[in-house]
Design brief:
Shape: globular
Order of helices and strands: EEEEEEEEEEEEEEEEEEEEEE
Number of strands: 22
Structural class: mainly beta
Mean pLDDT: 90
Radius of gyration: 15 Å
Strand order of the largest sheet: 1-4-7-10-13-16-19-22
Largest sheet: 8 strands, parallel
Helix content: under 10%
Number of helices: 0
C-alpha cells in the first residue's frame, strides 16, 4: 500500500520482529517508542515512503540484526537515547535509503562478534548519521563498543556527514584501516 500510517502507541516486543515494513509504496510511516529483545526493525523495498522514528528506540537483539533499512525510501530517527545492542547480529544497516535532513541519531551502538557494527551505504547527502554517546565528549565508551567483528567495524560507502562519538572499536577483523573504519567518502568525524 501507499497510505500514511501513524502508530502512536509504544511497541514492546520479545518474539519475532518489532517492526517489519516491506513493499510500502509511499506516504509517511510514523513510529513512537520501540523496545525490542528479539529480531529488531526491518524496512525493505519501500520506495517513496518516509519513515519517522520519533520515540526512544531500545533494541537488544542478540544474534539478530538490530535496525535494518534497505532498498528505497527515506528515514528520520530522532528519538532521544536510542540504543542498539547485538552479539553476532549487525546492529545498524542503512543501505539504499536516504537519510533526511533531520538525521538518524542513536546514543549508542554495540556488537560483539557481528559481521559489521555499522553499515551505511548510499544514504544521500541531505542528512547525517550520529552516534552521540552521553554528550559529554569524554572518551568513556558511552557511544557503545563494537568488538570482534568478522568484517569492518564501521563500513561507509557513499555515506555523508557521519559522526561517531565516544565509541570503542576493539579487535575488528578484515580491515586495511588501522582505525577499524572503512570510509569511501568524506565529511565524517570520529570524536
Amino acid at each position: 500500500g501507499s497510505n500514511s500510517i501513524t502508530l502512536g502507541t509504544f511497541i514492546t516486543n520479545n518474539a519475532g520482529r518489532a517492526v517489519v515494513v516491506t513493499g510500502h509504496g509511499g506516504g509517511n510511516v510514523v513510529f513512537n517508542q520501540i523496545t525490542d529483545t528479539a529480531q529488531g526493525v526491518f524496512l525493505d523495498n519501500n520506495a517513496g515512503t518516509t519513515f519517522f522514528f520519533s520515540g526512544t528506540m531500545n533494541l537488544n537483539t542478540g544474534a539478530n540484526d538490530g535496525f535494518t533499512a534497505t532498498n528505497g525510501g527515506s528515514l528520520d530517527v530522532t528519538g532521544m537515547g536510542g540504543v542498539v545492542t547485538t552479539t553476532t547480529g549487525t546492529p545498524v544497516t542503512i543501505d539504499g535509503v536516504s537519510i533526511r535532513n533531520t538525521g538518524v541519531s542513536f546514543q549508542s551502538v554495540s556488537a560483539n562478534g557481528a559481521p559489521n557494527g555499522i553499515v551505511l551505504a548510499n544514504t544521500g547527502t541531505a542528512g547525517f548519521f550520529l552516534v552521540n554517546g552521553d554528550g559529554t565528549n569524554a572518551r568513556n565508551g558511552s557511544g557503545g563498543t563494537i568488538r570482534n567483528t568478522t568484517g569492518d567495524g564501521v563500513l561507509l560507502t557513499n555515506a555523508h556527514n557521519v559522526t561517531l562519538r565516544q565509541m570503542n572499536l576493539v579487535d575488528i577483523g578484515d580491515t586495511a584501516n588501522p582505525g577499524d573504519i572503512v570510509a569511501a567518502s568524506n565529511d565524517h568525524a570520529i570524536e
